[in-house]
Design goal:
With 676 residues, the protein is α+β, with helices and mostly antiparallel strands. The chain folds into 6 domains: 7-63, Helix hairpin bin (Helix Hairpins, Orthogonal Bundle); 77-316, 2-Layer Sandwich (D-amino Acid Aminotransferase, Chain A, domain 1); 321-427, OB fold (Dihydrolipoamide Acetyltransferase, E2P) (Beta Barrel), CATH 2.40.50; 434-506, 5' to 3' exonuclease, C-terminal subdomain (DNA polymerase, domain 1, Orthogonal Bundle); 511-581, 5' to 3' exonuclease, C-terminal subdomain (DNA polymerase, domain 1, Orthogonal Bundle), CATH 1.10.150.20; 607-675, BRCT domain (Rossmann fold). The protein is 36% helix and 19% strand. It contains 25 helices and 24 strands. Helix 1 runs antiparallel to helix 2 and helix 12 (434-445) packs across helix 13. The radius of gyration is 32 Å and the shape is globular. The chain starts with 6 loop residues before the first helix and ends with a helix. It binds 2-(butylsulfanyl)adenosine.
Length: 676
């Protein structure tokens, strides 16, 4: 039996964990955990402390803002006139509504409609700047919220912070120092060239820069600043927060200019959605929004916790990355026999969906990223769709984590795996491997191939298990099992009929599609089109020599070899024979319009070749990209060539293209632009 942890033990454990995250975040500028997960731990601790007040103590991370290590600071320490507070976080509109209800509950009078200001939450380094009679006299970092570092010299070096205001006022303003994204990019490029370590993100770059001893460096870095708070604002006669922000602008202090006045929560929801999208167009990082009660005169009454005002809340945008535990690795065998590692994760929510599995690419990646089973790992959605493991958090390893061991045998059919020379992928070379067969069937029925609907992965697996299909040709004999199919899970009479009709219909797919469906290595959609167009039917394609294949635009050595080999393999010929017997269109019925569908794209009719060492693409990637846009890859420089993409150390091809004078020469960046 697992022994329950005592509340006291859990409190201690949570404190220790939270303190560690705080230390890394504030002192080392490193996040070992996502905000939402951090907040969950903090909340758990808060609730335990509420339930067991005897365990509460003033050193608990629930009662003060995380601190940067002031002891190690080289700057003069200054106690803030008013503590620099933090904000509570919210993650959805329900949290925000609950916040506004709490605000109202803390007020004596029942207000019909309280007004809130919606601002951007800048992700930088917070700063408190004091002006005396219009002159900037001091600037202090947040530090632990009570005491910060005097970085006045460095703040004076930031162009957008005025040293003198337009009015001779004395006031303390708080805001955020940020490094514009455009500057961040060039700064990192410069650092890379100089062999220096690059900054992990603009926030690190901003807070690192603020702590520079030499203010000349600060000047060069191009920091920027936006202010969002006036200390003791009511003393200046402001009635609302919005008014105070307008005043800042008036005296020359920059704000983001975003301060929407909202009282209706459905409007709030819409504006939040708007900014979630619009934030991408800003030149600084925002990690969310801040919602503040506009009426300053009510702030005292609504009150404060030790850490944050009760009249304001942060709304955090959904995290792009979250952490979770890597429970294990499954080695998955694909259609081509490629064996790829898939991370099995403790389920987490990421950008609105639950994630249990993520891609780990290949063994080399696992070694490069030093990922071990049992690690806490960061995951993110690549191109917004497939989750992948980004990194592991080494700092919190217990020593129990296990190194990943690559399999020697196919996890499905136990055949000894092979690793092609120079390639990183492991491969199962057994064509009868059930995983390869299943992959081949799924590929064959997919939309771009035979477009047979009703063939989900589970159904295919079941049919294979039951022996109804052994390879793709059996699909066309499935009507034999009509009655049995109807008894399968989730397959009623209607769905079986639909499936059979879809199979029947697929027989008249265009030749280019049936050719693609065969899954000849390297023959994708575009090459399927090219080969179909040039050969008219599969018999003439099968009879072509390698040279005849090579003469086609877009067909290189590798493709020619693959196609030639495919038609000399008795097993493939047998499959083609059977498919033909079932009436699958392989160009016999020449319907020119149908069989000659060529991908239309931005590059249609244009030819490309690349040379030299490419930095941004793998060779196959660039070829695929060109083809996906309808372009043709050539293998040599000739009058037929339109564009030559030049990487590092380009040699004779570049020279020849220059001599020809008709070829347009592009760098990788120019090519990338061109694809947009
Ligand atoms: S108001 C008492 N407004 O977020 C008022 N803070 O998570 C406290 N921040 O410490 C701050 N943008 O460093 C406020 N528009 C904004 C902000 C903002 C970014 C930072 C600030 C604060 C932290 C709280």
């Amino acid at each position: 039996m697992v022994e329950e942890k005592s509340p006291k033990d859990r409190v201690d454990e949570l404190r220790k964990e939270i303190e560690r995250y705080n230390y890394y975040y504030y002192t080392k500028n490193e996040s070992l955990i996502s905000d939402i997960e951090f907040d969950k731990l903090l909340k758990e601790l808060e609730e335990l402390e509420k339930k067991y007040p005897e365990y509460k103590n003033e050193n608990s991370p629930t009662s003060f803002v995380g601190a940067s290590n002031l002891k190690e600071s080289k700057f003069q320490k200054v106690i803030h006139k008013k503590p620099m507070l933090s904000l509570n976080n919210s993650y959805n509109i329900e949290d925000v509504v609950a916040f506004t209800e709490r605000v109202q509950k803390n007020l004596e009078t029942n207000y019909k409609e309280l007004e809130y200001v919606l601002e951007l939450k800048l992700d930088g380094a917070s700063i408190s700047v004091t002006y005396e009679n219009g002159e900037l006299v001091r600037a202090v970092t947040r530090g632990d919220g009570i005491e910060g570092e005097d970085v006045t010299e460095n703040i004076l070096a930031i162009q957008s912070i005025p040293n003198f205001l337009k009015e001779d006022v004395s006031l303390e303003v708080r805001g955020e120092i940020v490094l514009p994204l455009s500057r961040f990019k060039t700064l990192n490029e410069e650092r890379l060239q100089a062999g220096e370590e690059i900054f992990a993100n603009p926030r690190n770059a901003a807070s690192g820069t603020l702590r520079q001893i030499d203010s000349e460096i600060v000047k060069e870095r191009g920091l920027d600043a936006y202010f969002y708070f006036v200390v003791d604002a009511e003393q200046y006669g402001f009635k609302t927060h919005k008014e105070s922000l307008e005043y800042l602008e008036k005296v020359g202090i920059k704000t983001t200019g975003v301060a929407d006045l909202i009282s209706d929560m459905s409007v709030m929801e819409k504006r939040i959605a708007f900014w979630e999208n619009e934030k991408e167009n800003l030149d600084f990082e925002t990690d969310g929004l801040v919602i503040k009660l506009n009426d300053i005169t009510l702030w005292e009454e609504v009150g404060y916790t030790t850490k944050s005002p009760r009249w304001a809340i942060a709304y955090k945008f959904p995290a792009k990355q979250v952490t979770t535990e890597l429970l294990g690795i499954t080695w998955q065998v694909g259609r081509t026999g490629k064996v790829t590692p898939v991370a099995e994760l403790k389920e987490v929510e990421l950008s609105g969906s639950k994630v249990k599995r993520a891609s780990l690419h290949n063994m080399d990646e696992i070694i490069r990223k030093d990922i071990r089973i049992g690690d806490r790992v960061f995951i993110e959605k690549a191109a917004e769709i497939i989750p992948q493991v980004v990194s592991s958090v080494k700092e919190i390893r217990t020593g129990e984590e296990k190194e990943v061991v690559a399999p020697t045998n196919c996890p499905v059919c136990q055949t000894l795996l092979e690793k092609e020379e120079g390639l990183v992928d492991l491969k199962c070379i057994n064509p009868a491997c059930p995983a390869i067969v299943q992959g081949g069937i799924e590929y064959f029925v997919s939309r771009d191939a035979m477009n047979i609907s009703g063939f989900g992965s589970k159904i295919v697996e079941r049919m294979l298990q039951l022996g109804y299909i052994k390879d793709i040709t059996d699909i066309f004999e499935l009507d034999k099992y009509k009655d049995e199919l109807m008894t399968l899970d989730k397959m009623g009479e209607k769905s079986v009929e639909k499936l059979l009709a879809s199979i029947e219909k697929s027989k008249s797919r265009p030749y280019s599609k049936t050719l693609y469906a065969l899954g000849i290595p390297f023959v994708g959609k575009f090459l399927g089109d090219v080969l179909a167009k040039k050969s008219k039917n599969i018999d003439s394609l099968a009879a072509m020599t390698k040279d005849e294949l090579l003469a086609m635009d877009g067909v290189g050595e590798k493709v020619a070899e693959s196609v030639y080999g495919f038609f000399r393999d008795e097993a493939s010929l047998d499959i083609i024979r059977k498919l033909k017997a079932h009436g699958v269109n392989f160009g016999k019925i020449i319907d020119d319009k149908k069989s000659e569908v060529v991908s239309e794209g931005k590059f249609t009719g244009k030819t490309f070749l690349f040379t030299g060492k490419l930095q941004k693409f793998k060779r196959e990637e660039i070829k695929d990209l060109i083809e996906s846009l309808g372009g043709t890859n050539l293998s040599s420089v000739s009058k037929k060539l339109d564009y030559l993409i030049v990487g590092e150390d380009a040699g004779s091809k570049l020279k020849k293209a220059e001599e020809l004078g008709t070829v347009k020469i592009l760098t990788e960046d120019e090519f990338l632009e061109f694809t947009k």
